[in-house]
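Hi R.,

Here's the chain you asked about this morning:
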Amino acid sequence: MIYKYAVISVVTIAVIGLATWTTYLSYQPQNSTPTKLALLPDVLMEDVIAIVIDKQGKPSMKIVTPKMIHFPENDTTHITAPELTLYRKSSQPWYITAKYAKATQGIEYVAFWDSVIIHHAADEKSPATLIKTPTLSVQPNKQIAETNDLITLIQPNLVVKSTGMYADMNTGNIKLLSQARGEYVPNS
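And the predicted structure, written out as tokens:
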């Protein structure tokens, strides 16, 4: 008889242990689900024309693109064929185009790549300027653009090739970083 109660006690303890273990596993947080969700896009926009207005109500930036995809992880946006216009104190804005761009931290940093072109029409302080480079990093709010790649800078009667560039787009100052070579090209 004691043997019978011992077997029932062992079976009961085993069932209670199994039920407790199953309950414990069902309440474990699933770590993989939030990680997978963070890697998925949360917003897809097509045919975008967005204008950012400053505190005075004037446009500071305009973005035109056929497609933008936002990912919540690191607040990152992938942009296809971006056309970025940076308005500044001067009468002429800067235009930046490329095949691709990626904005991080909202629009604090924008990395452009593949056929990047920067254009600025002549104004009271600067001649018309065209810059070509494979990559470009831009801080739109600070109006700074920079690259360590090769650039070709074209202005009236002048073609300059350089490795690296730092541009303050608000003042129009462009600093060539190394191996700059210029060529005077007279009007024909």
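The chain has two domains: 2-30, 35-184.

Let me know if you need anything else.
M.
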